[in-house]
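Both lines are given unchanged directly below:

***
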Amino acid sequence: MKMNKRVRKAVGLIGSAVVAMGVVAGCGTATNNSGGTSSSPSKTTQPSAASSKQFVIGFVPGETTDPFFISMAYGAQQEAKKLGVKLIYEGASTYSPSAQTPYVNAMVSRHVNALIVCPTDLTAMIPPIKQAVNAGIKVLTADSTISDVSLLTSRITSDNEQGGAAAADFLSSMAHGQGVVGVLDPSPGISTDKARVDGFVAEMKKKYPKIKVVIEYDNEQTTQAEQLAQDLILHYGKNLVGIFGTDDTSASGAAQGVRSSGAATHVNIVGYDAEPAEVQDLKEGMISALIAQKPMIEGELAVEYAVDALEHKPVPKFVQLPNVVITKSNLSHNQQWVYRQS
C-alpha cells in the first residue's frame, strides 16, 4: 500500500460514510499496459447534465485512517466535484478483506452506478467484486487489485515494479554492490507489495548478483517489522547493508529496529510511501530514501475513468503512475508528494 497523499477535512472520518466531492491538480505521466505513456488528464470540460443528475460513484479504500488513502480520497472527491457526480466514500479503519467486504456489499445494495475499490487481497476480494459486476456496476480498482482483472473496467496503480527496482538500485549503490539486504513485506497476498518485491528481486539478480536478498513478512505490524529488523541485524551483523520496507509500516518498523540496535551506521533503509512518520525518519537520517507514490492522482483518475465508462467513452484498462525517489537532500523539492494526515 502506499505514498504522495493529500486530503483536508472531509476525509478524516474513520470508517463512516463521507459523501463528498472534490478535485486535485496533478501532473505526471501514466504508463499504459501497452508500454506507452500518456499525460495524466486534466479536464476542463463542464459536467454533463446526465452526470450531475444520475451518476453515483462508490469508493471503498483499503482503510480510511492511512494518509495514503486520505490523499487518494481527496483526489477522488475533488474530481467528483469537478465532474458534478455524487461520491460515496466509505470504508473500514483496518486493512483486511473481512473488514472491507461489508462495505463493498453495502455499495451494491445502494445500487451505485460505478464502484472504485482498493482491494485488500488478490483473491479474497474477488467474490464481493464479482457480485457488484453481476449487479451491473462498473468496478475499477485503485492502488491494489485482484487477480481476476477481467471483472474490472479499469485499474489504476503506481508502477510498483519500477519502484522496487529503484529501491534495489539505491540500496546497492550505498552497499557498493555486495552484502545482505533484507526485505520486509506485509504479506504476499497484496498485489502492490508483491510487485514491489518482484521488481526489487529482479533488479538485484540482474545487476547486483553479489547481494543476497532475504525476504520476511511482518503482517503489516510495525512492532513485528521492528523485531524482524533486529533479528536480521543479529543474524547477519555488519554483512547486513540495507533493508527495503515495502510499505510504511515495514519501513517505520525497520527504522525502529535499526535505531534500537545501534546499526544505523551500516544499515541503510529504503521505504515505500511518504507517510509523515517516514518523512520524519528521513529527516533524522534513519531512512535513506523513500519511494513515493501519487495516491491523490490515482483517486482523481479513478473517478474520471468511472464517469467516462458510464458515459460510454473509452477508458484505459490499465494505468501505472511513476514513483518519485525522495532523499533528505531533495525533500524540499518534493513536498507535493508527501502524504497528508487530514
Summary: Residues 114 and 138 are 5 Å apart (CA to CA). The first helix runs from residue 49 to 54. The chain has a mean pLDDT of 87. The domain at 9-159+294-322 is CATH 3.40.50.2300 (Rossmann fold).
